Amino acid sequence: TGTLNFNPIFTAPGVKGKLVTALSENEGTVYDFILSLIHQKPEMDSPFVVLDLGVVVGLLEKWSTNLPTVQPFYAVKCNPNSSLLGALAALGSSFDCASKAEIESVLSLGVAPDRIVYANPCKSESHIKYAASVGVNVTTFDSKEEIQKIRKFHPKCELLLRIKPPQDSGARVPLGLKYGALEEEVPDLLQAAHELGLNVIGVSFHIGSGGGDSRAYHEAIAAAKTVFEVASGLGMARMKMVDIGGGFSSGTQFDDAAFHVNEGLREYFGNEEGIMVIGEPGRYFAESAFTLATKVIGKRVRGEVREYWIDDGIYGSMNCILYDSQDVTCGPLACSSKPEDPRCREEKTYISTVFGPTCDSLDTVLRDYLLPELQINDWLVFPNMGAYTTASGSNFNGFSTSAISTYLAYSTSSIVGELQTMF
Ligand code: PLP
Question: Taking a C-beta distance cutoff of 8 angstroms, is the pair 329, 312 a contact?
């Protein structure tokens, strides 16, 4: 995270009463921002997250530099935080929605329905009817049964055939176990849609989410091209869209992924006119933009081992440890904000366990983790907590994930004016 500009903080549509609206004009890291929030409001409710909008802007710029021919459709499921959605909408991103509720939340930001792809290959009838009623007219499918439903409830909807990528990318979340037509199923599925008068405009795939081998994009783009050829062999209208799905991370993996995507597109679609390429990045935009601040609410000393309870856990934001196989990291707020401070660097550390707040022993966030001695009411901060975190938390034991507050920060001042005019 670069330099944060604390002033001004704006309120995005749909987020009410949870934002600090004005902070002092000091600058610093996201941890300084958290410290200043806490100092300003000592009664601050813990836990809370900080969304750094500068990170989002930077990632969008990086996307358009490295993947200039791919229009991003942010995958709302990854983190439906309305400030994030609002910023992405304002900055020109489109959206991948998986359900009626996700479509509603994107439309409520004033986004036009043609900036939404309904990228769920298996939809309930009522959700299809809703998509038809609001003019969301592009969706994915990978079965004949889905074609029947779409024919009945949204016959004008344009279709993307979701295929299973030929190469397993080894991602932490392999989606091919559940979705995607097999190569041998493609001709029948295309034929079935064609016979019912539905317009199959292209192909979609997802190589799997979280740390996959980026070469899988190249293979999947090749497979998409084969589907285009099969469709043309069946006398169908010329296909025009390739949806390369998600699977991107924001670190150096992104450069590698962009390389393989660009190579694949050049090799297989370079000579085709008028092809629209879209992607459905979720993790790429959400992960590094959010930092979670939690409070130590309990402590037990067992010999040299320190055990702490914090107020968020496996049933809350940290469900990503279970569902998304994430490795979370954390540090005491005081030292995260001053990593160079010798008092922090030289402080004795202890093997520590960090528990979540519920009464279930499964609710353990970290084991054998080195931390300095902490006291009740100290703050522990967790970076990179935006992807598949708050989106899938629960209210177990009465700890409501959806009640976690969001505070907004900027890490670049140049965008302040730009974004401010949009909210
Ligand atoms: N598109 C679809 C259809 C998905 O199922 C997912 C994640 O499950 C995504 C996009 C987002 O993937 P990622 O977060 O890896 O970018």
Answer: no
Whole-angstrom CA distances from 71 to 68, 254, 301 are 8, 15, 52
63, 109, 62: which is closest to 84 by C-alpha?
109
Q: Is 344 a catalytic residue?
A: no
Q: Which of 138, 254, 280 has the most ligand 1 atoms within 8 A of CB, as the residue to mutate?
A: 280
The model's pTM: 0.92
Angstrom distance (rounded) from CA 375 to CA 43: 18
pLDDT tens figures, 320-343 = 999 999 999 999 998 877 777 777
Helix segments in 67-161, DSSP class H: 82-90, 100-107, 125-134, 144-153
Per-position b or e across 242-254, b if 16+ CB within 10 A of its CB:
bbbbbbbbbeebb
- Using 50, 70 and 90 to split pLDDT, how confident is the model at 226? very high
Question: For ligand 1, atom 8, which residue shows the shortest CA distance?
Answer: 209
CA 241 to chain centre: 22
164 in Cβ contact with 181 (< 8 Å): yes
The alpha carbon dihedral of 396, 397, 403, 408 has a sign of negative
Instruction: Please give the DSSP secondary-structure letter assigned to residue 235.
Output: T
Q: Kindly report the CA angle at 372 between 371 and 376, in degrees rounded to 5?
A: 100
> Ligand 1 centre and the CA of 42: distance in Å?
38
- Domain 29-53+290-415, CATH: 2.40.37.10
Q: Which two tokens stand for residue 207?
A: 């190589």
Distance CA 116, CA 127 (A): 14
Mean pLDDT of the chain: 90
Give the ipTM of the model, two decimals please. Answer: 0.99
> Which two structure tokens, joined as six digits, stand for 11?
């309120």
Superfamily for the 54-286 domain: Alanine racemase (3.20.20.10)
Where along the chain do its domains lie? 29-53+290-415, 54-286
Probe target for ligand 1 pocket from 59, 96, 243, 288, with the most ligand atoms within 8 Å of CB = 96
Coil vs helix vs strand at 291? strand
Length of the chain: 423
